[in-house]
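can u do me a favor
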């Protein structure tokens, strides 16, 4: 493990494992997905894995201030944990969160505080999150979107957001899979 991941895992565990064990399992699964695509990330592989294990810490009861977990998690990482800025930005913008922020009337706040990371990293984190069930096992983005819609309800803010984000989630996944396929075709 790199220093970044050595720091990220215990922090995420301390915030999620006891109060939200299922969310903790999800984060572990998302980090596992990150390791499966490390070949296309090069030296950013550890960065992505750290962001993956931390991406949902904003759900932790002690951190949930606004009720918008990407913003709450990013603020904690910035203001309390002194995290790497790139990890913070990935957490803030994971899985098309700007669309949810828009639905909540918080997009200007999110984007004003946290710039987006490079597209390939945002794509990669979205891929990892949307290919992991709430219990941390592998899935696919269609089933994951349907699960989220079913859990929150199609007319809820989250249900409407995830359906609005679906084309971009599928595009992120497609771009990551194209990068993985291209990397596997490269001669050794």
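np, heres the sequence
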């Amino acid at each position: 493990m790199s220093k970044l991941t050595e720091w990220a895992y215990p922090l995420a565990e301390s915030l999620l494992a006891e109060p939200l064990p299922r969310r903790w399992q999800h984060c572990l699964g998302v980090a596992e997905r990150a390791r499966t695509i490390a070949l296309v990330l090069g030296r950013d592989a550890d960065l992505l894995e750290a962001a993956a294990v931390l991406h949902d810490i904003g759900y932790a009861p002690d951190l949930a201030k606004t009720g918008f977990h990407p913003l709450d998690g990013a603020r904690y990482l910035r203001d309390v944990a002194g995290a790497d800025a790139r990890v913070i930005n990935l957490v803030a913008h994971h899985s098309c969160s700007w669309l949810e922020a828009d639905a909540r009337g918080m997009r200007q706040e999110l984007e004003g505080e946290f710039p987006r990371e490079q597209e390939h990293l945002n794509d990669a984190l979205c891929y990892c999150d949307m290919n992991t069930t709430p219990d941390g096992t592998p899935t696919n983005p269609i089933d994951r979107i349907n699960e989220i819609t079913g859990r929150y309800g199609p007319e809820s803010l989250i249900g409407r957001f995830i359906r609005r984000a679906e084309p971009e989630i599928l595009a992120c996944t497609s771009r990551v899979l194209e990068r993985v396929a291209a990397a596997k075709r490269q001669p050794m």
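Residues 95 and 126 are 4 Å apart (CA to CA). hope that helps!!
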